[in-house]
Write a structure and sequence with these properties.
Strand order of the largest sheet of chain B: 2-3-1-4-5-6-7
Number of helices of chain A: 6
Order of helices and strands of chain B: HHEHHEEHEEEHHEHHH
Largest sheet of chain B: 7 strands, antiparallel
Number of domains of chain B: 2
CATH architecture of the largest domain in chain B: 2-Layer Sandwich
Strand content of chain A: under 5%
CATH class of the largest domain in chain B: Alpha Beta
Radius of gyration of chain B: 27 Å
Number of helices of chain B: 10
Distance between the termini of chain A: 35 Å
Largest interface: A-B, 14 and 15 residues
Shape of chain B: elongated
Shape of chain A: globular
Oligomer: heterodimer
Structural class of chain B: alpha+beta
CATH superfamily of the largest domain in chain B: Api92-like domains
CATH topology of the largest domain in chain B: Alpha-Beta Plaits
Largest sheet of chain A: none
Number of strands of chain A: 0
């Protein structure tokens, strides 16, 4: 093994990678200019992945701890922004619908609803949470690891 | 390859002439199909308009020397950037606001994107292209502005004064039928350069695929096997290998990165069985779907053999 990551951490990574592929695959391609929403989506998955990888390492020096807290802060910020965008449907042009639809699909499948009506905001929120659970779990683990660090640094 | 007889070439196609309607009777008048293009070119300045007019009028008159001279005035070194030797039935007319260029092409020829790209780099502000596809009897309009292919609404938002020129009212009393509703609009504005690149890529891929298929068909033909059946087998095998490759990559990466070697080896084993099967079934479904469509088009046939078209036998010789 080249890393200290446990098997269950690997499972979270794999699930996160699958989710990342599903979501970015559903995004429409922007022909010209910088596709900010796509890059935001990449950051939304990559930063929590870094946080999760750091969770399995001791991070002895204060420099490493500050760096970890910085990455965790950025990841939490991105997650919060993305979740708000997904629930309100306020993301970049043509892209919010795709991810929200995927989330809606996951929510509808999870709830086993045969109803044809489009899910409401609550179902969208549940769908988003299910779809992005690897990211949310990674952030949760990062917070659990960061809390003693914050106390030690203060 | 496409070949147009000169006599047929000289017969002008039914030009849309700003109208999107076409009758079947008109279609039967032509034995050889061609695409009729009408380009309305709007320039930045009257001088550019006049220069371009001279270039195209000399080109139409087959006076390449003078055309080259005026193309130089326009800033274009190569006449091929403005004109395609395959165009025929060409006409040019100068209007007060724009230049009107009409020509026909074979049905397999590209849109005049190269000329448009060059003109946009040398004083063209906007253009409207109308193509009448003789073969299917359909007309299509495309709007270009500032070097980009834009939607009809966006075009007229930017140039409201030109609507009367580009879409003159035909005086018909049926206001509900918009004769200009045949506009092909992009989802987002796209540069003409990118359109050209996409078109070239698409053409190249098509040629490569056709060549690969011909090679494959020849190989199977030599062995006395149906090329279609052989192609299906190759596609299924490729799908299987793709699944196997994905499983191997997954296993190697996870074993190297994460603890729990037996878990990842087990998962890899499951994937090595499931992924090839999944990809092959998906590929087979797609192939069978295509086959079913063909069967339907041919009036239906037995559905016992999923590889229906495999009954085609190659000419061995």
């Amino acid at each position: 093994m080249l890393t200290e990551i446990e098997w269950w951490g690997g499972l979270i990574f794999v699930l996160g990678a699958i989710t990342h592929r599903l979501v970015t695959g559903a995004l429409g391609k922007k022909d010209e200019g910088i596709d900010w929403h796509r890059w935001q989506m990449h950051g939304f998955f990559v930063l929590p992945a870094v946080v999760l990888a750091g969770y399995f390492y001791p991070l002895a020096g204060p420099g490493l701890q500050y760096a970890y807290l910085g990455v965790l802060g950025a990841a939490l910020l991105l997650v919060a922004v993305m979740l708000v965008q997904e629930v309100t449907g306020d993301a970049g042009e043509g892209s919010a619908e795709t991810t929200a639809e995927a989330a809606d699909g996951a929510a509808a499948a999870g709830a086993a609803q045969a109803d044809d009506e489009s899910p409401g905001w609550l179902m969208t929120l549940i769908g988003v949470v299910v779809l992005y659970s690897p990211v949310l779990v990674a952030c949760g683990l990062g917070c659990a690891k960061a809390w003693p660090m914050v106390q030690g640094l203060l | 390859m496409w070949a147009v007889d000169n006599a047929e070439k000289n017969k002008p196609a039914q030009r849309g002439n700003n109208s999107c309607t076409f009758t079947r009777a008109d279609f039967t008048l032509h034995t050889m199909s061609q695409n009729a293009h009408t380009l309305q070119l709007f320039f930045d300045s009257p001088i550019k308009l006049k220069t371009a007019q001279l270039v195209y009028q000399y080109l139409v008159a087959d006076n390449t020397e003078q055309a080259q001279r005026w193309a130089g005035e326009l800033g274009v070194a190569d006449l091929d950037d403005l004109w395609d030797g395959e165009w025929f039935n060409q006409q040019v007319a100068a209007k007060p606001t724009h230049l009107l260029l009409c020509f026909d092409t074979g049905t397999h020829d590209d849109l005049p994107l190269r000329a448009l790209e060059t003109l946009f780099a040398h004083g063209l502000r906007a253009a409207v292209l109308e193509v009448f596809y003789d073969q299917v009897g359909e007309t299509e309009r495309m709007h270009f502005d500032q070097g980009q292919w834009v939607g009809r609404q966006a075009f007229f938002s930017a140039h409201p004064d030109w609507r009367a020129v580009v879409e003159p009212a035909d005086g018909g009393d049926d206001a509900q039928d918009d004769p200009y509703a045949c506009s092909r609009d992009p989802a987002k504005p796209m540069s003409v350069a990118k359109m050209r690149k996409d078109e070239a890529d698409r053409r190249k891929q098509g040629e490569e695929a056709a060549k690969a298929f011909i090679d494959l068909a020849q190989t199977f033909g030599k062995n006395g096997q149906s090329p279609v059946q052989g192609l299906i087998a190759v596609l299924l095998l490729r799908a299987g290998f793709k699944g196997l490759l994905h499983a191997v990559v997954f296993t190697v990466v996870t074993v190297l990165l994460f603890k729990g070697i037996w878990l990842w080896l087990g998962l890899g084993l499951v994937l090595a069985i499931a992924l090839p099967l999944f990809y092959m079934v998906r590929e087979h479904k797609e192939l069978r779907g295509d086959g079913d469509d063909d069967d339907d088009a041919a009036g239906g046939s037995d559905d016992g053999d999923p590889a229906g078209p495999a009954t085609v036998q190659p000419a061995v010789g």
